[in-house]
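Service request form, structural biology core

Requester: graduate student, group of Dr. S.
Request type: structure prediction, single chain
Budget code: on file
Notes: please return the result as structure tokens.

Sequence provided:
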Amino acid sequence: MATSDGWFYAADEASAQQAARDTAAAVSAFQRHFSPDVPFGAVILSAAMPRQARDAFQTERGLPWVRVWASPAEKSTLLRENLRRTQPKLSAAAVEQLVARVSRSTGDVLPHEIGHSLYQARFWPGPTDDGSLHYATPAPDWLDEAAAILMEPPPMLAERRQQYHALLSVPSPHVQDLPRFLQAPHPVDAARRAALTGGGSSSASGLTVMTASGDTGAALAAFYQQSLALADFLIERSGCPDVLGQISLALADGQSFDDWLAKSGPALQLGNDVATLTQHWQAWLNALAVPTK
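Core staff response, request fulfilled:
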């Protein structure tokens, strides 16, 4: 099926319609926080489509982005295989309970992945392999992840905010000070991705279902939560819903975050350097940590 946002392919009409609704929601959030100009693309729900076929499909049709994702049934199968291999002591009933729980949130994940696609296509179209250790685009990893997180459904965002609020109340090695976080690599860096992928369940399309637990899982959750918190802070402090888009345009134009802050920060009440921004950030966090009645 086709809409003004893109083309949608799935094994059944209901799944295609759901993908279209997820994309429409992501597009609306992207326009609000990043750019009114949203690249037209396609979503293909198929774990069996090889990456080469996806690339050919995108090239032949001149699409800025194509997101190949697994259908709910395919993702459940991959997760079930992964749990049986990585946690052999789990009973069959426990495996099915976990699969059912994750399956209920499957629809929340697609807007996040579409957010990654929209962000790259809008600000860094074409190949982005610059030889760096960035998680996805050349943008700082927190910003790249915030672009995807902000596309998620409101209940999922509310849960992340609540979790970060709780994280502030206890000492955690995974909560970083702002100067360090602005430059921090994604917790699942190239080395850890390779290790997790090795224990994951992969499909022909390249989609890999992995389970991260322990220190890696805690670091990953905290990174997502702090990325959203920083986005919330910048939007609230500046009074500009699209401040992340302004930052992204500057970075895509070759400026550094420090350059952008020195030029645009004072007018947006953010300060002209990271030290001043950190003071505002800490005050915002202190207010956030005050218990509400």
